[in-house]
Amino acid sequence: MVSSIGDNVNLWFGSISNHGQNWLKPLLWLLGLNFIIVISIFCLLGFGFQPQAFDAESLRIYFELLNPANFFLIRELRGLSDNPSICGETFAVFLFYIWKIIIGLLLYQIVIAFRKYSRKI
């Protein structure tokens, strides 16, 4: 029973994440979801969403969040927060680590698309 559940989950994930040779699709998913995650983490840590407040520091955080190996960013963001709630901070950390897993999966899809494309050349 366990192996059939694992097989079904694997097949389901393969069906929703198989982008074939299209490397642009997972890249757009990565950038779009990263924007949503950055805003969510900012709001959960008490920064709020202020479109006029996006500056070079916010852009740096946006691109650093794309790095799947950077686990120190959440500690830095928690230190910058003036008024975090315990629940919001906990959920922000949870969201941060789940996002790292999703980044890895999307980067994997980009690499697979490039490998399929390079075989045709």
Main beta-sheet annotation: none
Strand content: under 5%
Number of DSSP-assigned strands: 0
Secondary-structure element order, N to C: HHHHH
Question: Which parts are unreliable, with pLDDT below 50 for 5 consecutive residues or more?
Answer: none
Helix content: over 70%
Termini Cα gap: 43 Å
Helical stretch tally: 5
Mean pLDDT: 75
- Counting helices, strands and paired strands, the structural category is mainly alpha
As a whole number of angstroms, the C-alpha radius of gyration is: 17 Å
User: Any idea what the shape is?
Assistant: globular
Descriptive account of the structure:
There is one protein chain. With 121 residues, this protein is mostly helical. Helix content is 74%, strand content 0%. It is built from 5 helices and no strands.
Brief account:
This protein is mainly alpha-helical and 121 residues long. It has helices at 2-17, 24-44, 56-64, 73-80, 86-120.
SSE map:
Elements: H1 2-17, H2 24-44, H3 56-64, H4 73-80, H5 86-120
Helix pairs in contact: 2-5
Write out key terms for the chains shown:
mainly alpha, globular, 121 residues, 5 helices
